[in-house]
Write a structure and sequence with these properties.
Distance between the termini: 68 Å
Order of helices and strands: EEHEEEHHEEEHH
Number of helices: 5
Strand content: 15-25%
Mean pLDDT: 85
Structural class: alpha+beta
Length: 150
């Protein structure tokens, strides 16, 4: 049994002008300038600083262990919540990893502010010494030299 050939759509001889296209720009990322004890400056994303990771269908605050709707307004509201800010203070950057901006979340996991990823405590050194982390750290330093806050 043969399958009939597909018919091509008829093309109109009239040419209609294309509709106006609106170019959507990606929303600009918000950044935070951090000054380390040795006066070295790093610029990281606000999400990274606040421990907010984008998942498939939501945001996750790894500090509060809270799921947030995939909406920038909800995310901004969460960052300003008093409960988030109090929780945020409980997770300072680890003393031995201050330049790498690593926070200890619990016994088994850490959070890398530079890369905005969670890392198993067992693999923390491998992460910090890895090429991807080093590149992100370098970018944070470069952004610090050129970033102008709004």
């Amino acid at each position: 049994m043969s399958v009939p050939a597909l018919r091509q759509p008829k093309r109109s001889k009239k040419t209609t002008p294309p509709k106006k296209s609106i170019t959507c720009r990606k929303p600009e990322k918000e950044y935070v300038i951090l000054t380390l004890k040795d006066d070295k400056k790093l610029v990281v994303t606000s999400d990274g600083y606040h421990g907010i990771i984008k998942m498939e269908s939501m945001y996750l605050c790894v500090l509060c262990e809270t799921e947030i709707d995939l909406d920038d307004k909800c995310k901004a509201e969460h960052k300003n919540l008093e409960s988030h800010l109090k929780t945020f203070e409980k997770f300072p950057h680890l003393e031995g990893f201050v330049e790498n901006l690593v926070r200890q979340l619990n016994k088994n996991s850490c959070y890398c502010t530079i890369c905005n990823v969670m890392v198993s405590t067992n693999f923390l050194m491998r992460h910090v010494e890895g090429e991807a982390h080093k590149q992100e750290l370098e970018r944070a330093g470069i952004r610090a030299s050129v970033y102008k806050p709004k």
